[in-house]
Amino acid sequence: MKKRQVTTITPNPAIDKTYWLEGLQPGRQNRVSRVRVDPGGKGLNIARLLKGYDLEVAAIGFFGGIIGRELIHMLRTEGVEITPVFVDGNTRTNTKIMDPTSGEETEINEPGPYVGAGEQKQLLQLLSDYAVQSGYTVFSGSLPQGCPADYYRDLIATAQTFGCKTLLDTSGAALREGIKAAPDLIKPNQQELSELLGREITTPAMAAEAAMELRRAYGIAVVVVSLGALGAVMASEEGTYHAIPPKVKPENTIGAGDSLMAGFIYGMVSDRPLAECLRLGVASGTLAVTDQATSVAKPQFEAVLAMEKRVELKRLD
Ligand SMILES: Nc1ncnc2c1ncn2[C@@H]1O[C@H](COP(=O)(O)OP(=O)(O)OP(=O)(O)O)[C@@H](O)[C@H]1O
Ligand SMILES: O=P(O)(O)OC[C@@]1(O)O[C@H](CO)[C@@H](O)[C@@H]1O
């Protein structure tokens, strides 16, 4: 019996600083009307959400400087078990600008501190310690400077040797290389999928076709493609599905993908059929966009269950 249900791996965590600013003017002085600060980084968002959903979860990643220590403090205050690999330099601050009138969201993400080969090895070792105790390992977000594009491939291969299920949510070269390790699940969004395949994916039907193609080409058991307000499609051995969310008023869609992942993982951990995991994932993602925080400030599973009832599930194959 594994001690922990889920371990999330966040190589490039962040503090998210969100500004509310009407009519951003590049090249001019801009004054914001409101600001909020949240812990950020995809894997840390997933860990906080899963903790809020009452799962046994641990988080590991690279942290540095004052911001890194502040971030660890914020997470521990919420009761998230976190084991850092410390690096020189400062954990990044990612700036998000919300325009309340247009609804436009602008993201300015820093590259993160430099992570050397020794620290990369330390995280690999730490992952072995956690993978042996965990049912699922979740690899999320961009890689910091210094990490090669195939770093996730090595991490995933290591977790697989301990019989862990591996889930990957990243973009660009890290995604292209990471899928070569055949993780159990990937969750690109529409843009990440288009970039990966080198062609524009614009409809749920195209996304479903592309998801099936990726399963076949790389031996990935489950491919979920998130499509913003259109929900998400999934290709799996249990069928191809589209989960469609209800219409909601979006407050902040940043981190919605992490909430989708958290809902989906909750479903997997509780042995639900994959179509139900997708429905829970879309419910959790949709709930997140109604919250002003990047991801969700105070995740509660009862709210996900209420939203789940409003998500329509369609079989596509
Ligand atoms: N405008 C919206 N209305 C309703 N639900 C939404 C909206 N935007 C996102 N969602 C929900 O959140 C899920 C994930 O959204 P999205 O595809 O934007 O993820 P993402 O691009 O990976 O997000 P991020 O990288 O910011 O975490 C969707 O599948 C859907 O359930
Ligand atoms: O730069 P990355 O690692 O791709 O994304 C980082 C990030 O934008 O993702 C999260 C939302 O999903 C935020 O908390 C965080 O700032």
What's the helix and strand layout?
Blueprint lengths: L3 E7 L3 E7 L13 E7 L1 H11 L4 E7 L1 H13 L3 E6 L5 E7 L6 E4 L8 H15 L2 E7 L10 H11 L3 E5 L2 H7 L6 E2 L3 H8 L6 H15 L3 E5 L5 E5 L2 E6 L11 H14 L4 H16 L11 H8 L3 E4 L2
Parallel strand pairs: 1-4, 1-8, 2-6, 4-5, 8-9, 9-10, 10-11
Antiparallel strand pairs: 2-3, 6-7, 11-12, 12-13, 13-14
Bound molecules: adenosine-5'-triphosphate and 1-O-phosphono-beta-D-fructofuranose (F1X).
Describe the structure.
This is Tagatose-6-phosphate kinase. Residues 14-296 form the Carbohydrate kinase PfkB domain. Keywords: ATP-binding, Kinase, Lactose metabolism, Nucleotide-binding, Transferase. Pathway: Carbohydrate metabolism; D-tagatose 6-phosphate degradation; D-glyceraldehyde 3-phosphate and glycerone phosphate from D-tagatose 6-phosphate: step 1/2. It is an enzyme of class 2 (transferase). The longest helix is centred in the C-terminal third of the chain and has 16 residues, at 274-289. This protein is 37% helix and 25% strand. It has 317 residues and is of the alpha/beta class. A 10-stranded mixed sheet has the order 5-4-1-8-9-10-11-12-13-14, sandwiched between helices. A 4-stranded mixed sheet has the order 3-2-6-7. It has helices at residues 42-52, 65-77, 117-131, 151-161, 172-178, 190-197, 204-218, 256-269, 274-289, 301-308, and strands at residues 4-10, 14-20, 34-40, 57-63, 81-86, 92-98, 105-108, 134-140, 165-169, 185-186, 222-226, 232-236, 239-244, 312-315. It is built from 10 helices and 14 strands. Helix 3 (117-131) packs parallel to helix 4 (151-161). Strand 4 (57-63), helix 2 (65-77) and strand 5 (81-86) form a beta-alpha-beta unit. 51% of the residues are buried. The two termini are 36 Å apart. It has 2 domains: 1-22 and 33-169, UDP-N-acetylmuramoyl-L-alanine:D-glutamate ligase, CATH 3.40.1190.20; 184-317, 3-Layer(aba) Sandwich (UDP-N-acetylmuramoyl-L-alanine:D-glutamate ligase), CATH 3.40.1190.20. The structure holds adenosine-5'-triphosphate and 1-O-phosphono-beta-D-fructofuranose. 1-O-phosphono-beta-D-fructofuranose is lined by residues 12, 14, 16, 40-42, 45, 94, 107, 109, 141-142, 171, 254-255, 257-258, 294.
